[in-house]
Amino acid sequence: MPNLSVRKVDQTAYEQLRIRAAKHGVSMEEEARQIIYLAVSAPANISIVFQKYFGRQNGINLEELHPRKPHEPMDFDE
Q1: Can you tell me the distance from the alpha carbon of 20 to that of 24, in angstroms, rounded to the nearest whole number?
Q2: Which helix (H) or strand (E) holds 16?
Q3: Half-sphere exposure of residue 22: CA atoms within 13 angstroms, side-chain side
Q4: Are 31 and 19 in contact (CB under 8 A)?
Q5: Separation in Å, CA 50 to CA 35, 40, 44
Q6: Distance (Å, rounded) from C-alpha 49 to C-alpha 72?
Q7: Which pTM does this prediction carry?
Q8: Where are the domains of the chain?
Q9: Could you tell me what percent of the chain has a pLDDT over 70?
Q10: Nearest residue to 4 (alpha-carbon basis) of 25, 44, 47, 35
Q11: For residues 63 and 66, what is the distance between their CA atoms, to the nearest angstrom?
């Protein structure tokens, strides 16, 4: 696997990374890997993004905001 060195990291960013890694129970190096991976990876499905930020666990129920109503099937015979 390739290696990456990051120099001249701002002290505040360094401390925030340290705290974030501690909260997640991983090393700073692992936390940085995860952040980089998330920054450059596109989600497999846009619905995953909406569920993450607008899902029920965040207090938002999309079904209640805009309930779906059944529609009539299209008729292509006309």
Answers
A1: 6
A2: helix 11-24
A3: 6
A4: no
A5: 19, 18, 12
A6: 30
A7: 0.54
A8: 11-65
A9: 81
A10: 35
A11: 5
CA distance 18 to 60: 31
Contacts of 50 (CB under 8 A, 6+ apart): 62
Tokens 């008729």 map to which residue? 75
Cβ contact 46:52 at 8 Å: no
pLDDT of residue 11: 96
**Cα–Cα distance measured from residue 27 to residue 24, given in angstroms and rounded to the nearest whole number:** 9
CB 33, CB 27: distance < 8 Å: no
In one-letter notation, the amino acid at residue 42 is A
CB 24 within 8 A of CB 31: yes
Q: How far apart are the C-alpha atoms of 17 and 36, rounded to whole Å? A: 12
Q: Are the beta carbons of 30 and 40 closer than 8 angstroms?
A: no
